[in-house]
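Need Ser/Thr phosphatase family protein's 3D structure for a figure. Predict it.
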Amino acid sequence: MVLVTGDIHGCADIGKLTAKANPIQKEMTKEDFLIIAGDFGLVWNNDEEDLWWRKWLDKKPYTTLFVDGNHENFDLLDDYEVTEFNGGKVHRIGESIYHLMRGEMFELQGKRFFTMGGAESHDKEFRTLGTSIWTQEMPSDEEYIHAIETLDRIGWQTDFVITHCAPTPIQSEIAAMLGFPDVYPSNRLTDFLQQVREKLEFRGWFHGHYHTDLTSTIDPRVNLLFNNILQIV
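Structure prediction for Ser/Thr phosphatase family protein:
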């Protein structure tokens, strides 16, 4: 079983992962997965609060996976050792918590998952570099190159895509639907994701970042998640 949901922002929006809010977890084991589509936020200070909630997640019956969003402490995240997990590179954060790195391909429950975290903060003028925002929120040149190499290697075919932000036209659609057409301008990453969407063969694409739950009318395979938790496998 593979579930996917949106941002949890540390403990701010983690309530959706309780057994009461997500009762299907009672049927899951550590061989099953719950994927968070960015803004995990529990590697923020590595303080007592972070550690408590990560221990709480480790006690869940499933294995927790996440791509990075823009609201992560990348300096701390990058300190974790890089290891291999189900075909791709990860940072292991806890006993059963893994950060799925950018431009990687994973096999989960017999399905392929391409991951590309990162996003541009729209509130960056109110944040402090190295304290509440990091330059690594957007992919590096090397990460874009690696993503293309990964997709070339698997012949541009996957089952699912997990990102934090959306391809440019879908991001524009979301912003218009939310009534904020100028809040989310296009950038290198959203343009890159659009190029991937145009070429890649995939069944479903799941992302967070925009704090609501929507299915794109431009491409119904692309789903924005925040509170909803979907079973996709």
